[in-house]
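In the current project phase, the collection of sequences with tokenised folds has grown. A representative record is quoted in full directly below:
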Amino acid sequence: MSADAIVHTEFPKGYTVLFGADGKVIMTPQSVERSSTIKSMQFDTIVSLGRHAKTVSDVCIDFPADEHSAPDLAILREDVRREGKRYSFEDVLLISEVVSTSSARKDYDDCTAKYGRYGIPIYLVVDPYAQEVVLHTQPTATGYIAAHTHKYGTGKLPIPLADGRTFTLDLDELPRPEAEADAR
């Protein structure tokens, strides 16, 4: 499916649409855990980087070879300019994907290889089910050299960005699936 076809396709409401590097289109229902986690990370971007920081969530970013992505969260350079209606991968400082039960392989493996290959400086995998965050740095042609795992509930995780700013992810405030169930 071409990028233009994807942009003009109306997908069912309530589903997240994932595009694999192998050309597969995966549709998965949005979960409360995913939505709550993205909201928590967006709040942390406001606290860390300010209300007007250049961030996007579920917005298509252009990569070479029609490997476009709409990551759960992306932090962009402050001087970023859109090319038409989209941003380029070259403007991305950090990408974060939130693991869902159907996207674990994609988030941990496929995206790690893809984002590393295109030189995304920081790739963050946030897994509400394992209650951990994997911080990938030092991109290479096959992925990342460094991967550090941080457990939920272990305080604030400062993440230095390539432009000198610091994004601080509050690991104590990331929602846990049990907490969602207990709140009902």
Q: What stands out?
A: Confidence is low (pLDDT under 50) at residues 179-184. The helical segments are 3-7, 32-49, 104-117, 177-183. Residues 32-49 form the longest helix (18 residues).
